[in-house]
Design goal:
alpha+beta, 3-stranded antiparallel beta sheet, two-stranded antiparallel sheet, 10 helices, about 15% strand, elongated
């Protein structure tokens, strides 16, 4: 998986959760997936359609009713579901809110080694300075990212590194996702 694919995948809040649930063996119909995810109908529907659009899910031909279709993982989706499940296991339900934010997992993936703001931005060209800054602050607040300031250079530069749960997610994601 490429970092651009990961960015697309995480752009909808419930995408990782849906993939993780399918990996766990939850039936690929909307009602069981919706109930297991805890998402609102609208957000769930958008995430499900997004997964179909990016080629992670497909309708299971010959199964399900036209109004209650059944979905299955594609080959790309199976790889992504394995990663999503590992990330969900690490994060647990208490950190589900920050994990559903669009840039959390891609940023943590780039932090497999300590990085400066500009290095993270270079790895994720689609991210804005504001989105990167806000995401790093929110991950700092829940102790997933640590920031240190190096005073040897002028002006001083911040160095970010993934810690605790963020460090575990970073290692798992970086082992599967190609950054270049």
């Amino acid at each position: 998986m490429d970092i651009r694919d990961l960015v697309k995948l995480t752009s909808k809040a419930w995408s990782l959760t849906i993939l993780s649930l399918l990996h766990e063996g939850v039936p690929g119909r909307q009602a069981p997936l919706l109930a297991a995810s805890g998402a609102s109908r609208t957000a769930f529907g958008h995430s499900l359609q997004h997964l179909i659009d990016i080629g992670m899910l497909e309708r299971n031909p010959g199964h399900g009713h036209p109004l209650r279709p059944e979905f299955r993982l594609t080959a790309r989706g199976t790889e992504a579901a394995r990663l999503a499940h590992r990330i969900q296991e690490i994060a647990h339900r208490e950190h589900d809110g920050i994990l559903r934010r669009a840039w959390t997992v891609p940023i943590l993936t780039t932090l497999h080694e300590p990085s400066h703001f500009s290095d993270i931005k270079r790895s994720l060209p689609a991210i804005t300075d504001r989105a990167l800054s806000l995401s790093l602050r929110s991950m700092e607040a829940c102790d997933w990212v640590a920031r240190s300031v190096t005073g040897e250079t002028r002006p001083p530069r911040s160095l970010y590194r993934a810690t605790n749960t963020g460090g575990e997610i970073s290692r798992v994601a970086a082992s599967v996702v190609a950054l270049g």
